Amino acid sequence: MYLRYKRMLTLSIPFGGSRQKRIVSARLAKVGQMGTQLKLRFTWAKSTLTRIFDSLATRGQAAAVVLRKNGWSVLRHSLVVLILAVGSAAVIPVASKPASDASNHELRSLPNRLAVTTPQPIAVVAVKSRSAEAQEAEVARAQAAAQADAAARLERTSANRSTVGRAEVPSNAQALSYSSLRGLYQAAAAQFGLNWQILEAVHQVETGKCSANCRSNSSGASGPMQFLPSTFRKYALDGDGDGVASIHDVSDAVLTAAHYLAAAGGQSNVDQALFAYNHSWSYVDMVKRVAAGIGG
Fold first, then answer.
1. How many CA atoms within 13 Å lie on the side-chain side of 144?
2. How far apart are alpha carbons 241 and 266 in whole angstroms?
3. Closest to 170 (Cα-Cα) out of 249, 243, 255
4. Residue range 83-104: average pLDDT?
5. Which CA distances in Å does 169 have to 172, 174, 208, 213?
């Protein structure tokens, strides 16, 4: 590069004159100094890189020796760390036999204190988070509460069925005529703003318009309008004015049925009220067909 620059400078200056020669000589000297400095820097960089590569080679050989002696432990440790990173499990160190003095001395003697300790055996134990434990405890409490509620309901149902026995059925109950029953339907429906044909159809579908000594069904429903005792107690009304609302009295049962249908929205949505009375859409259709066949 120095010769090329020298030739370029020589060709760029016209021949003749001592001033031009002095300028060329000065520029050549400056270029020579720059070349010398670059050469020194290159030499220093080369020696520095050589020392670095030698140091890395030495450390690499030392690390290779440690890996050859403890390769299985290092590999096992790496695999466990990988498993922990993927599974996010808790790691609990387990006490193990310490390394021998000879191996510790050999490790301490590595260049620049290259410390590679033999990893201890570790055990991976899955630990549930507190949030998961809280959720499980909440689910367990909910299940226990549901079981207790179901048991209480079963007990109440048994008690209700025991209170609706043959002894409670009036022995002197007299069956009413259809004309008398129709008067009950019309009066009860007018009181709650219902269609009396729907009320009569419910009675027809439930018990065939039974008005005295009506049988109980398998689910425990009793009386002319087939009420469960718990439901009857909630909506019971005294239809004949004797001061007692009885599930077996037809007047009380019809008025209570009208009360129940009205509470379920029977004034505006007959289908919804009938489905609340008996959770079956085929039952709803049957009652509406019977009501349509009842004349005014």
1. 6
2. 25
3. 249
4. 52
5. 9, 11, 18, 6
